[in-house]
């Protein structure tokens, strides 16, 4: 029996930060330099007078670099968009938007070929065609890869090279080492919610001509900020993945959807209980080539769990591993690649082979200790088929978005394709609206209400709460306890004093920690509300799928700062 709902959490609508000391203007501001951000910037550069591309680190530091497995597209004549669509819908566990998936699979092959035209070099078969392999949840060989297991790095290299080639073009400006703080919005509407997006505030870390907090004004803002990995204690995401885009969009009045669906990659290198930060991923493609999962007694267990065994969807494999760990009292399982041969492993998985060797593991002769860790966020900022969010002028593409493609669980290697397809669509839509004058520049106005700042010293505390509450396996009691613990974290560190001193001052580590705290709160609240198990959301107290929950759970901030939840059919 479900318990009465808890009081909705309250979150601030802006970060505590100094006022902007400088301003730059563009037609479109793109935030992020993974496949989605770089693609959007390249598409916009030839279509609008001026584009600003903002990235948190360097251009080549986006999450795309870390994508090992590949990019999925029906490129083989024996494959079809219809088959790709069906595999995606199956993985999404009833919550995909079929219209979004159809866009993905029908436009995907053309976008991949355009990526090749932009310089990306994929591995090829002896006949010269792109070599295709298979990963979990796919019933056909449709995964294109580069450098064996360095697909993301190759795609990033090609797109960054395209940006660098036009960097002196007056129609594009790149600002690196810049953390976006908040989305700027215009005058509120009659309902009191923020108005149209009209730029961002950002903090540049002492690089180039711009330094400190500034404002980047634009007719459109494209969020392509990636995922939320650092919300958790252990993740395969880079250190920059602190949920900045999702938190900024929420504060600006945008609707979030499916935030409770978090993909935990089943096979992340396990090196002890002290693991934290970005962890080494052992790609799905390794199991696609025939690697087996064994428990610590040497028993292969996946054939008894799912007809596709080790190639079952990621949520199925991750949940099976966690349950096996509980049964055996172990903290890891084994991935067995020994039968695949040393030469094949070195050639097919050079990056993984090298990283495992650096940890003292020879994957050709030794078992690999693995356990699930946070990997991908299936939900995000709700966006339509051209990337538009619920806030006029604000677009979201890539992992930060909830496009409807992934539903409750992302199909392996669909993420790079999603970023590519929907960034292209968003850029072309923005360009058309700039051209016809329907996207005017709006003057920003301050949003009312309190500011928030969480001390960086609280980050480990928040990550521990998120890992214990909305982790791989969840329960109502655990989620309620997590909300209470999150509510106890001080969010006024800039104004709270201890012996006459502030707990913290506004700076990068504190802003990131505030974003982590807000995302963790929204995620935990949504996970508590969804009283069923589906895809990347597993409740031990509601272990079955419930058709009454075949819907998208939307979250937004009310004018007084409360998280509001609404139920929306999935497409």
Structural account:
This is L-aspartate oxidase. It is globular and about 60 Å long. It is an alpha/beta fold. The protein has helices spanning 35-45, 81-91, 98-117, 151-165, 244-251, 284-288, 314-328, 342-348, 350-358, 414-436, 459-468, 476-487, 508-529, and strands at 14-15, 23-31, 51-54, 71-72, 132-133, 143-144, 172-175, 178-185, 197-207, 210-223, 234-235, 256-257, 262-269, 277-278, 292-294, 333-336, 368-377, 380-382, 394-396, 401-402, 451-452, 497-498, 501-502, 552-557, 563-568. The mean pLDDT is 93. It is built from 13 helices and 25 strands.
**Which bin fits the share of residues in helices?**
25-40%
Question: How is the main sheet built?
Answer: 7 strands, mixed
Which structural class should the secondary elements be placed in? Answer: alpha/beta
Question: Can you tell me the overall shape?
Answer: globular
Q: What is the number of beta strands? A: 25
Strand content: 15-25%
Helical run tally: 13
Ranges with pLDDT <50 over ≥5 residues? none
- Would you tell me the overall average pLDDT? 93
Termini Cα gap: 29 Å
Radius of gyration, in angstroms, nearest whole number: 22 Å
Helix/strand layout:
Blueprint: E1 14-15, E2 23-31, H1 35-45, E3 51-54, E4 71-72, H2 81-91, H3 98-117, E5 132-133, E6 143-144, H4 151-165, E7 172-175, E8 178-185, E9 197-207, E10 210-223, E11 234-235, H5 244-251, E12 256-257, E13 262-269, E14 277-278, H6 284-288, E15 292-294, H7 314-328, E16 333-336, H8 342-348, H9 350-358, E17 368-377, E18 380-382, E19 394-396, E20 401-402, H10 414-436, E21 451-452, H11 459-468, H12 476-487, E22 497-498, E23 501-502, H13 508-529, E24 552-557, E25 563-568
Helix pairs in contact: 1-4, 1-10, 2-3, 3-10, 5-13, 8-9, 11-12, 11-13, 12-13
């Amino acid at each position: 029996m479900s318990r009465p709902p808890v009081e909705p959490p309250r979150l601030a609508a802006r970060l505590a930060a100094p006022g902007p000391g400088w301003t730059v203007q563009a037609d479109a501001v793109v935030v992020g330099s993974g496949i989605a951000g770089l693609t959007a910037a390249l598409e916009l550069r030839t279509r609008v007078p001026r584009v600003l591309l903002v990235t948190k680190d360097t251009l080549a530091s986006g999450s795309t670099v870390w994508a090992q497995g590949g990019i999925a597209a029906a490129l083989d004549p024996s494959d079809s968009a219809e088959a790709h669509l069906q595999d995606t819908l199956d993985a999404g566990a009833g919550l995909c938007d079929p219209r979004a998936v159809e866009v993905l699979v029908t436009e995907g092959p053309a976008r991949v070929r355009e990526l090749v035209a932009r310089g990306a070099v994929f591995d090829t078969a002896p006949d010269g065609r792109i070599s295709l392999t298979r990963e979990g949840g796919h019933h056909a060989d449709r995964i294109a890869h580069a450098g064996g297991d360095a697909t993301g790095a190759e795609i990033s290299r090609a797109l960054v090279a395209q940006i660098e080639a036009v960097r002196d073009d007056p129609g594009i400006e790149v600002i690196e080492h810049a953390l976006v703080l908040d989305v700027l919005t215009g005058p509120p509407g009659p309902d009191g919610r923020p108005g149209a997006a009209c730029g961002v505030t950002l903090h540049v870390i002492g690089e180039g001509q711009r330094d400190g907090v500034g404002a980047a004004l634009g007719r459109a803002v494209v969020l392509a900020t990636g995922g939320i990995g650092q919300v958790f204690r252990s993740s395969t995401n880079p250190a920059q993945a602190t949920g900045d885009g999702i938190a900024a969009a929420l504060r600006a009045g945008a609707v979030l959807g499916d935030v409770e669906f978090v993909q935990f990659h089943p096979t992340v290198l396990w090196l002890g209980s002290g693991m934290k930060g970005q962890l080494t991923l052992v790609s799905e493609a390794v199991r696609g080539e025939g690697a087996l999962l064994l428990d610590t007694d040497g028993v292969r267990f996946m054939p008894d769990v799912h007809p596709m065994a080790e190639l079952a969807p990621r949520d199925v494999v991750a949940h099976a591993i966690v349950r096996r760990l509980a049964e055996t009292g172990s903290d890891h399982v084994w991935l067995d690649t020994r039968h695949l041969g040393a030469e094949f492993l070195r050639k097919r998985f050079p990056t993984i082979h090298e990283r495992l060797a650096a940890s003292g593991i020879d994957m050709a002769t030794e078992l690999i200790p693995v356990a699930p860790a946070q990997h991908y966020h299936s939900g995000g900022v709700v966006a339509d088929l051209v990337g538009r969010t619920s806030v006029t002028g604000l677009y979201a593409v890539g992992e930060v978005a909830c496009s409807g493609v992934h539903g409750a669980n992302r199909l392996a290697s669909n993420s790079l394709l999603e970023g590519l397809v929907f960034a292209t669509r968003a850029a072309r839509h923005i360009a058309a609206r700039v051209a016809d004058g329907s996207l005017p520049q709006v003057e920003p106005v301050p949003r009312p209400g309190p500011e928030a700042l969480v001390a960086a010293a609280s980050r480990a505390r928040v990550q521990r709460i998120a890992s214990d509450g909305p982790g791989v396996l969840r329960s109502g009691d655990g989620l309620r306890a997590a909300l209470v613990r999150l509510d106890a974290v001080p969010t006024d560190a800039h104004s709270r004093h201890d012996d006459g001193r502030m707990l913290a001052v506004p700076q990068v580590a504190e802003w990131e920690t505030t974003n982590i705290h807000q995302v963790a709160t929204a995620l935990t609240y949504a996970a508590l509300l969804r009283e069923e198990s589906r895809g990347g959301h597993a409740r031990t107290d509601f272990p079955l799928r419930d058709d009454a929950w075949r819907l998208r759970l939307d979250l937004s901030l009310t004018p007084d700062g409360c998280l509001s939840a609404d139920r929306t059919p999935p497409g």
